[in-house]
Amino acid sequence: MSFRAPEGTHDILPEESPRWRRLEDASRSCFERFGYEEVRPPIFEYTQLFHKSSGETTDIVEKEMFTFGDPEDKAGTYSLRPELTPGTIRALVEGGLLAKKGVWKLWYLGPAFRKERPQKGRFRQFTQLGVEAVGSADPLVDAETMILFSEILKAAGVEAWELRINSIGCLQCRGGYREVLKNAVRPMLGTLCDNCKTRFERNVFRILDCKADAEKTRNLPPAIEHTCETCKAHMKAVEAALRDAAVSYRVDPRIVRGLDYYTRTVYEFSSSALGAQDALCGGGRYDTLVKDMGGSDVGSVGFAAGAERILLAMKGEAAARRPLDFFGVAVQEPQRAAVFRIVTDLRRAGLSGDMDYEGRSVKAQMRSANRSGARYAVLVGPDEAAQGRLKLKDMQAGTERAVTFDEAREILKGGKP
Ligand code: HAM
Questions:
Q1: Closest Cα to atom 13, ligand 1: which residue?
Q2: Is the CB–ligand 1 distance for residue 308 below 6 Å?
Q3: Which atom of ligand 1 is found nearest the CA of 268?
Q4: Do 326-412 and 17-170+227-313 fall under one CATH topology?
Q5: Residue ranges in the chain whose pLDDT is less than 70
Q6: Is the CB of 53 under 6 A from ligand 1?
Q7: How is residue 383 annotated by DSSP?
Q8: What integer pLDDT is reported at residue 401 of this predicted model?
Q9: Backbone angles phi, psi at 153, to 5 degrees
């Protein structure tokens, strides 16, 4: 019997993991440089959390969640997290953190799950890396999150990207814009796709997001012309900060985002190196979510990016595996125990090394040593075993010398060969 990984999931095998590590290390170091602290919410939450935050009528909540548990259970069912924003805010509110400090800048990196139709760059289990800056309404923080993501792309070596931003207004001005948009869409509604027809009633803004009807809806009035003066000033300040930081962007009235909690600034980074699923990162401001979830009335902004998509867009060299410092070789079977002891002691001294576990000949062990890329082979034969010494072979120079364990350790640690 053989098994396959579930549809829409993928294994990260050893030859790929160095690229993952490079992206994760680059992200972590950018997050920390910008003053963000790590948070790790659980992988599943009560389903209700996502209904109340991501939004009851969003595709994600309506169609894409993996939900389990007993519906009769008083506490409700659970869902695998389709995004990390709700869990992060829940954790912050539940932990009473906002009473301790005004602004929390948090980052996360971990799996998310959406029951979507898999295709290139779209998975059912994928990895999100992102930030949530909670507690400030300052437009500079909106810009900071975008600058931060552009730094991650730079560090990861992704060159072909575009940032598009928009403002979808606040609670005060969105109602007015909703009416303007509905009046403009109504005459063409019959010609739009079924999805848009449903969206007309439930969330008319998302009609702007529809790729199928993009041509027909091209001239609909943009949100930005209908936002209030405070929202307009906010957007201007975000743009000024991006220009100051020399981060190029384009205002795109079609960016409305597929989650319900956004207010004012919304943005997406995309890459021409990807196919239809070209969004590398999506984010924006959500000034009402924390209060809606039982916290204080504070502004927030954040983004999440799909790690798999960044990797697809990353210029391709497979980063080489870091070679081992040494490879232990037993000249004959009786010396295997001594080799194992030396290997263990050298590892305990902070060096990286391995040995043969297949009981192979000394020639075959030397081939493995070569393949491992180790700079040195550490050999023990009957003579070395008798004298409590070992032989160090420089795999590049081809030279050999008998040394004590302490000498070997110093040489391997970077002393002179
Ligand atoms: P989102 O736009 O739904 O936003 O997802 C963010 C990113 O996750 C996307 O741009 C994409 O790169 C990646 N992504 C989403 N779905 C998939 C999938 N099925 N397969 C592979 N990658 C995917 C959010 O999740 C918000 N929580 C972002 C946010 C944080 N807004 C404010 N704070």
A1: 306
A2: yes
A3: 10
A4: no
A5: 315-320, 415-417
A6: no
A7: H
A8: 95
A9: -65, -40
Domain range annotation of the chain? 17-170+227-313, 326-412
- Residues ≥6 apart with Cβ < 8 Å to 17: none
Superfamily of structural domain 326-412: Anticodon-binding domain (3.40.50.800)
> How high is the pLDDT of residue 416?
45
- Does the Cβ of 116 fall within 6 Å of ligand 1? yes
The strand ranges marked E within 141-198 are: 161-167
Pocket lining: 280 vs ligand 1, CB cutoff 6 Å? yes
- Options 3.40.50.300, 3.30.1490.20, 3.40.367.20, 3.30.930.10; CATH for 17-170+227-313 is 3.30.930.10
Chain-centre distance of CA 208, in angstroms? 27
Element holding 355 (H helix, E strand): strand 353-355
Angle, CA of 131, 132 and 135, to the nearest 5°? 150
Distance 257 CA to ligand 1 centre (A): 10
pTM of full prediction above 0.85: yes
Please, are residues 75 and 122 in contact by the beta-carbon 8 Å criterion?
no
pLDDT in tens, 245-295: 999 999 999 999 988 899 999 999 999 888 888 999 999 999 999 999 999
From the CA of 283, give the closest atom in ligand 1: 31
Q: Which atom of ligand 1 is nearest to 116's Cα?
A: 19
CA–centroid distance, residue 294 to ligand 1 (Å)? 24
